[in-house]
């Protein structure tokens, strides 16, 4: 073992130079959907709820889990697992609904929706310089739904672009297509 290399001053210099190259910190919520570890920016998260009573909507695609009453407001709940083509989420002890705010459309500036996920883990402080571009291969989720990849403890996590995942135009087209079958 090279003692000079592990000297406290060298470790400190290394940490300082690493910090100098750091970018702004972004807080990301780590969650699970099917076998995927995903991240969503904490600023779009309104609240995290246990799965409660939902009203199913007839003639909608399988990713529309239904609607829920959130303090008098009707909020659609999107099953992210089904939205990404992994099949419906099986409701378990850790399943949660994350109420998020995404970009709306011409009619509504903001879209409030619930997203059904298998589990919610923690909020991570991520250096924005550590957010990598989405690779063209090897990602189970369509690239248009992703804003980047982040190296986390146990591998890589995909940073979701919720404005794309919950795009009112895309969702309306998919719902309209389901009603014509």
From TrEMBL:
One of its GO terms (cellular component) is cytosol. SMART domains: CheW. InterPro entries: CheW (IPR039315), CheW-like_dom_sf (IPR036061), CheW-lke_dom (IPR002545). Gene3D superfamilies: CheA-289, Domain 4, SH3 Domains. GO terms for biological process: chemotaxis; signal transduction. Signal peptide: none annotated. This is Chemotaxis protein CheW. It comes from Kinneretia aquatilis. The lineage of its organism: Bacteria, Pseudomonadati, Pseudomonadota, Betaproteobacteria, Burkholderiales.
């Amino acid at each position: 073992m090279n003692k000079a290399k592990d000297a406290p001053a060298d470790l400190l210099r290394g940490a300082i130079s690493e910090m100098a190259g750091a970018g702004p910190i972004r807080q990301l919520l780590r969650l699970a959907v099917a076998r995927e570890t995903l991240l969503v920016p904490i600023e779009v998260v309104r609240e995290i709820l246990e799965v409660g009573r939902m009203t199913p909507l007839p003639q909608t695609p399988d990713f529309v889990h239904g609607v829920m009453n959130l303090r008098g407001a009707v909020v659609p709940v999107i099953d992210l697992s089904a939205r990404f083509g992994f099949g419906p989420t099986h409701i378990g002890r850790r399943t949660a609904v994350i109420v998020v705010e995404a970009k709306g459309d011409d009619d509504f500036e903001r879209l409030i929706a619930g997203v059904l996920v298998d589990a919610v883990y923690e909020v991570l402080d991520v250096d924005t310089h550590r957010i990598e571009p989405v690779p063209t291969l090897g990602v189970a989720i369509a690239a248009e739904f992703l804003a980047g990849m982040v190296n986390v403890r146990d591998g890589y996590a995909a940073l979701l672009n919720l404005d794309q995942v919950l795009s009112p135009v895309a969702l309306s087209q998919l719902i309209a297509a389901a009603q014509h079958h």
